[in-house]
Amino acid sequence: MQDRRRSYGYVGPADVKAAVRSGNEGHPIRLRADFDRWVAERSGAELAEPFTFVVDMDGVLRLAPRRSEHVTCAGGGRVLSAGEIAFSRETGRWAVLGVSNHSTGYCPDTSSWPAVAEALDRAGLGHPPGFTSEVVFRRCLTCQEHNIVRENYFVCVFCENDLPALWNVDSCDERP
């Protein structure tokens, strides 16, 4: 049966996507052993702050340093989700401390959480029941600018027109 989850195309600056080079994708975390090897190579300073993540079209979690571009982490492709993720060590095991869908390059909807949860479950990482910080993205139908909706105020910060109630950022909205 074909997966009907929404995928997200890159909507950020074209020059950022043009700079993506093959081989610079985020580190794939398919299994717990992948994560254990990856985390063992991180410094304490790196682990003290969140990481950039994407869930690629194969459902694989990919991790990169926080200041990495999401489109680079994804190798330039579409994703099932994207954002920032932080880890902590609890009772001798690593788990997700916090996770958001904050990616201005992909602007994923909050409904992308199941893809993140599935990738984390496959990797054997404990996680919260949903995004610990949700970002609501909308594209203004008048000026076409991308907006972050704050405090349920669906008004464009650029032209002050109303924003749609439903997610609409990636106008292609292709399905996998």
Short description:
The protein has 176 residues and is α+β, with helices and mostly antiparallel strands. It folds into two domains: 14-134, no CATH class; 136-169.
Describe the 3D structure:
By secondary structure, the chain is of the alpha+beta class. The chain has two domains: 14-134, no CATH class; 136-169. The chain has five helices and seven strands. The protein has helices at residues 14-18, 32-40, 44-47, 70-73, 113-122; strands at 27-29, 51-56, 61-64, 79-90, 93-100, 136-139, 146-149. It has a five-stranded antiparallel beta sheet with strand order 1-3-2-4-5. The N and C termini lie close together (12 Å). The model has no long low-confidence stretch (mean pLDDT 93).
Number of strands: 7
Strand order of the largest sheet: 1-3-2-4-5
Order of helices and strands: HEHHEEHEEHEE
Major β-sheet profile: 5 strands, antiparallel
Radius of gyration using CA atoms only: 16 Å
Low-confidence stretches: none
Helix content class: 10-25%
Q: How would you describe the oligomerization state of the chains in this entry?
A: single chain
The secondary-structure class comes to: alpha+beta
What is the terminal-to-terminal distance?
A: 12 Å
Nearest-integer average pLDDT: 93
Label the overall shape: globular
Tally of separate domains:
2
Question: Number of DSSP helices?
Answer: 5
Which percent range describes the beta-strand content?
A: 15-25%
